UniProtKB/TrEMBL annotation:
Name of the protein described by the UniProt record: DUF7702 domain-containing protein
Transmembrane annotation, as ranges: 6-24, 31-50, 62-82, 94-112, 132-153
Organism: Aspergillus kawachii
UniProtKB keywords: Membrane, Transmembrane, Transmembrane helix
InterPro entries: DUF7702
UniProt keyword Transmembrane helix, yes or no: yes
Domain of life assignment: Eukaryota
Residue ranges constituting the DUF7702 domain according to the UniProt record: 2-155
Keyword Transmembrane helix among UniProt keywords: yes
Length: 186
C-alpha cells in the first residue's frame, strides 16, 4: 500500500469541512474559488480512497494527478475575488477574460492528457499519444506560471486599491494547497 494515498485521504478529509464552510459563507462572491477548492478536496478524497484500496489503480492515479486542475482554478478564483474587492473600478472585461482563458486552457490541457493516458493504458497507443500527454502537461505548467504572474500583478500594492480586511489571513490558509500543487506538478 502506498502511504501517499492514505496521507492525502486523511489530510483532505480534515480540510474538507473548512472548505465547505468557506464555500457556504462566501456565496456568489467567492463561488469560483471555493467551488474549485471543494472539487480539489473531493478529487483528493476520492483518489485517496481508491488508492488505499488499490495503490496500483490507474483510476486512483489519474484522479490524483488531475486534481491539480481545480487548485489552479481555485487560485484564479481567489485572485478574481480579491481584485473585485480591492479594485472595484478595474476592467471587468479583463478580469473575466483571464478567468475564462484560464478555465478553457485547463479543460484543453486535461482533455489532452487524459485521452493520451487512457490510450496508452489500454494499449491502443498511437504515435502521437506521448506528445499529446506532454502537450497537456506543458499547458498545465504554462497556466500555473501565468497564474503566479497574474497573482503577483493583481495583488501588488496600489494606492487606489481598497485594502480587503477579510483577506489578511488568506495567504496562510492557501499555503498548504499551493505547496501540494507544487508537489503534484514537480
Amino acid at each position: 500500500m502506498n502511504g501517499i494515498f492514505a496521507a492525502d485521504l486523511a489530510a483532505y478529509l480534515i480540510l474538507s469541512p473548512i472548505v465547505v464552510y468557506n464555500f457556504i459563507t462566501h456565496r456568489w462572491t467567492g463561488f469560483l474559488a471555493w467551488y474549485s477548492l471543494s472539487m480539489f478536496c473531493s478529487a483528493r478524497v476520492i483518489g485517496g480512497a481508491l488508492g488505499v484500496r488499490d495503490a496500483s489503480s490507474m483510476t486512483a492515479n489519474i484522479i490524483q494527478s488531475v486534481g491539480v486542475t481545480p487548485l489552479i482554478l481555485c487560485v484564479d478564483g481567489l485572485v478574481h475575488e480579491a481584485r473585485t474587492y480591492r479594485y472595484p473600478y478595474a476592467s471587468r472585461r479583463l478580469n473575466w477574460s483571464v478567468v475564462v482563458g484560464t478555465s478553457v486552457t485547463m479543460v484543453v490541457a486535461i482533455s489532452l492528457s487524459i485521452k493520451a493516458c487512457l490510450d496508452i493504458f489500454e494499449d491502443k497507443a498511437q504515435s502521437d499519444d506521448h506528445s499529446l500527454w506532454k502537450t497537456g502537461s506543458a499547458l498545465v505548467v504554462v497556466v500555473w506560471i501565468f497564474q503566479i504572474g497574474w497573482s503577483i500583478y493583481s495583488l501588488q500594492f496600489h494606492d487606489k486599491g481598497i485594502q480587503g480586511p477579510g483577506y489578511q489571513g488568506g495567504t496562510a490558509v492557501s499555503t498548504p494547497f499551493l505547496l501540494d500543487a507544487s508537489r503534484v506538478i514537480g
